[in-house]
Amino acid sequence: MLRKIFKKYLPSHESIQQSRFVKFFGTLLYHHNLWHLHRRSVAGGVAAGLFAGLVPGSNPVQFFFATLFSVIFKVNLPIAVFTTLYSNPFTIVPLYIAAYFLGSWATGSKISSMDDLPPLELHLLDKHLSEWAPVLTDYLATLGKPLIVGLFLLASLLSVTGYFAVRMFWRYYVIHTWHKRAKRKRHSNNNP
Hints:
The chain has 192 residues and is mainly α.
């Protein structure tokens, strides 16, 4: 199972408590659910990571929010941080477009197609990163309320869906494993 693979790479409680980084935060990161792999903790970690993955900003900002949500809700921290990586340079544009249309629908804005979006005047090859980053920020600010509402709604929707999907998959896997074990046991009892 994936649990054995993750458990192999997760740190032990002793190594966590002896880490200089963790000692900086005191006992905040000592709760056992932050590091253990069980159905509720992993499902919560996926939900926290899916929500934090749509927080505007780069990966360190999203990692921070995933850690914060993990500590608040006492869910698996490494899973939450890892899950934020679904929003990356390849997926962020479709996610933001989906969030914008979801926010437009929720706020009642009249956006029906991509043609209704404000034009983006961004010449990446002509400018240095430090010059076009403010242009991109201003463009996102013009999208305003529909984008912000859409990001919150999409993050919530992904978070709830991810939570229940992990719980259902975990339950299915456990039941499937029980059935396989019972079948093997019946088979070994019938063939001494």
